[in-house]
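Let us work through a complete example step by step.
Step 1: write down the sequence.
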Amino acid sequence: MIAAPFHAGERALQALAGSREQMEAVGSRVIRDFMPDQHRQFFSLLPFLVVGSLDAQLQPWASVLAAPAGFMHSPDVTHLRVDALPAAGDPLAGQLQPGATLGFLGIQPHTRRRNRMNGTVEALDAAGFTVAVQQSFGNCPRYIQAREPELAAPRAQAAPVQWLDRLDVAAHRLIGSADTLFIATAYPNEVSEGDEADASSHGVDVSHRGGRPGFVRIDSDEEGRDVLTVPDFNGNRFFNTLGNLAAHPRAGLLFIDFDSGELLHLAVTSEIIWNGPEVESFEGAERLMRFRVTHALRRPAALPLRWGDAQFSPHLAGTGQWNSGMRVLTEGR
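Step 2: predict the structure and record it as tokens.
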């Protein structure tokens, strides 16, 4: 077990939310430095893997790898082997090298199971890579929309990637109708000086967020930059994602078009809104995450998976919706 699984940012937010004492007792029991057999078997069943990485400018990115089930296996409790590599244009391609820290989310939407694993690339070859485990733990199934992925034939020729300084109409349409997003965050060594937490709490994390379609609100600021606001619902109180953002307020968001396989990667800066009229106006929100988009990457038909109709999480019954319409947000609000 890990003696001190939470870093300074996570501990600070746990204290602010009143869960610090509880998490101190629970964390070292449920966050492990190895993969239990159940998790090892689970990853081997999956046809895709969500991956968080960190580039040289300390910008987190969220990506996804897909291949026939069995492309991942755990040769022992402290390693995971992934027999897949990112395609050209995937932000992960530039970060995947020995010694790199990565965050993994193994998620099976149709059963609403998910497990997290963070680790370090130990070996890289022409077929894939091997990661040494730093942290391994389960997540609750709340807010996951049940949809089952099926592999589709990959395109004969990859469509060119598109870099966007600002979100266009198509990006707004995808984000505005989304019921799911993935978020990569990080606690880099560069911001952890003086933190006495276990070194395994440093690195990259990637997580899931879900809500009713349209749970991500799109606004603009006074300079015309795109601003996304996402409600943060009740969770496990670890504050892995928000703790990272408190210490290093940059994130990578990933939106998936479940019909076409298009991937939209966003690089954003963040702030956390703990209380006030906006939080109170969204039923079920305990706080809000606000993201200013710095740039975006669209990868048409990049994910060779297709999905059936979604069955929405029953936990969404206690959550609300945004009022329609775009607003202009002022700095510091």
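Step 3: interpret the result. The chain has one domain: 8-148+161-322.
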